[in-house]
Amino acid sequence: MASARDIRRRIKSVKNIQQITKAMKMVAAARLRRAQERAIASKPYTDKIKEVLTSVAANARDASHPLLEVREGKQIGYLVLSADKGLAGAYSSNLIKEVLPQVRGKDNAKLVTVGRKARDYFKRRGYNIDGEFTGFSEKPSYPDAVMLAQLMAEKFATGEYDEIYLTYTHFYSPINQKPTTIKLLPVAGIGEGAEAPQTEYIFEPSAGEVLSLLLPRYLETVIYGALLQSAASELGARMTAMGSATDNAQELISKLTLNYNKVRQATITREISEIVGGAEALK
């Protein structure tokens, strides 16, 4: 049985950890508010640019663009948006579970990872990693999205990848995030087979040049929106995890305090018994 001194030390240790988890929860909550606002604000723009691009591409049937080219899916690339840090509950493991069935046992699947968690997991297991980026999972910026969009567009245009998928975590609430995979390239639902809208367009200078401007912006916007969704999801998961850790620490402190009082009471009772026994022996 642990002594009173050992229990006191453990109580102090748990209290120190509780202070850390409480502080991390407060920091994550403060960052989450801004990240959530940015994620919500970006969604209408992403939806609108896709609507415009679909409409323009459907009316520009004579125009073509490398990012609209449909090829047989021989080489498949996955852009995976994960976290740089841990202490976020099951956030990273759920994202990896979303990616694994799509790449396990496939020699033609290659990965471009954002965040240390996905990079470390897949690198340790010998998966093909074509690119790795770290340092901005919590605070992504638009230039980060531009850099990723240019990289993926170049890999697709040169034929290195025939299809590209984007895997990220969609934010619904601080306690509800869902890993999601969408087709990034070739741009889905655009080009051949797209239903032509009623509006007719006159393109100036040409339909091809309009598509050349819109398609890169579309890629940048979709990736930027996914980065913002992932950042909000990571912070929400961390806030929830640190809140649970703080509550668990308080519960553990209560149990240890009760155990400490029991040990202390037993020690006092034993000492009283020894005093009484000694007094009786002297009579």
Can you walk through the features of this model?
The chain is α/β, with parallel strands linked by helices and 283 residues long. Helices cover 60% and strands 13% of the residues. Strands 3-2-1-4-5 form a 5-stranded mixed sheet, with helices on both faces. α2 (91-103) links the parallel β1 and β2. The protein is elongated and about 115 Å long. The two termini are 35 Å apart.
Per-chain topology:
Blueprint: H1 4-59, E1 76-81, H2 91-103, E2 109-114, H3 116-124, E3 129-133, H4 142-157, E4 163-173, E5 176-185, H5 207-282
Helix pairs in contact: 1-5, 4-5
Main attributes of the structure:
283 residues; alpha/beta; 5 strands
Percentage of residues in strands: 5-15%
- Spatial strand order of the main sheet: 3-2-1-4-5
Structural class: alpha/beta
The percent of residues in helical segments reads 55-70%
Number of separate helices:
5
* Gross morphology: elongated
Taken in chain order, the helices and strands follow as HEHEHEHEEH
Question: How would you summarize what this structure contains?
Answer:
This protein has 283 residues and is an alpha/beta fold.
